[in-house]
Amino acid sequence: MATTVRARPANVRWAIRGLSILACIALWQIASTYHLNLGVVTFRNVPPPLEVVQAALALFRSPKLAAHITSSLWRVFAGYAAAVVMGVILGFAIGRSRAASDLLLPPLELLRPIPAVAWIPLSILVFPSSELSMIYITFIGALFPIVLNTVHGVANVDRRLVASARSLGAGEFSILTEVVLPDAAPGIVTGLAIGMGTSWFCLVTAEMISGQFGIGYYTWEAYTLQNYADIIVGMLIIGLLGMGSSWLLTTAGRLLMPWRNPKVAR
């Protein structure tokens, strides 16, 4: 006999999520207060949550906060925008053309495993300014997830839909915009969200070659100065900005795809 699983009310789900965060903070407080040493992991130098909150308040009162955030946002979104344009174009070309796949996919697969930090020396040599070098690092971080998810979405479009549209007299452009793009859109949006998260992930690497501003630079500078609480503040700000950016992308994707009814996690 089939049973139906009832969805939890929204307020209950949010309460559970809030409690999970509080539980993590409580464990963090205990581990840092008692300087737990678990052998492989030690919390001897990890600051407690209250110290991190104090460091965050000091940063929020500082006039440098706006400069740090605006610099990082510019670098991430400039590199990300370039990655979106190039990644979607390459993804459609590879997904729709076997010749393009044979020509473009091998070098992309060769470059994809290279970590962002390994691109720093080359970016310094290639680009005339450190700003362009940092934008390039965030671009590289976002490019490959966008390309691969676009390729996957385009290549898995139902061929019966394409054949039906072609039998009704649709041209290649109409097939591309009215059949392939709507069917591949969920995969593309997933790639865009992953690419945004990867761009923020690469930000610290990119801003290691910066000399003045940026949340990644602020985090790295805190490490070199052994301001441990500021390290966690920088990490949390990067996490919040990355999470917010990815949430905006996925929300916009759902609004732009009214034909798709995503399953709600229970």
TrEMBL record:
Segments crossing the lipid bilayer: 12-31, 73-95, 107-127, 133-151, 232-256
Entry-linked InterPro entries: MetI-like, MetI-like_sf
SUPFAM superfamilies: MetI-like (SSF161098)
Locations listed in the record: Cell membrane
Record-annotated ABC transmembrane type-1 domain positions: 69-249
GO biological process: alkanesulfonate transmembrane transport
Its membrane topology: Multi-pass membrane protein
Gene3D superfamilies the record matches: MetI-like
Task of the protein: Probably part of an ABC transporter complex. Probably responsible for the translocation of the substrate across the membrane.
Protein name, UniProt field: NitT/TauT family transport system permease protein
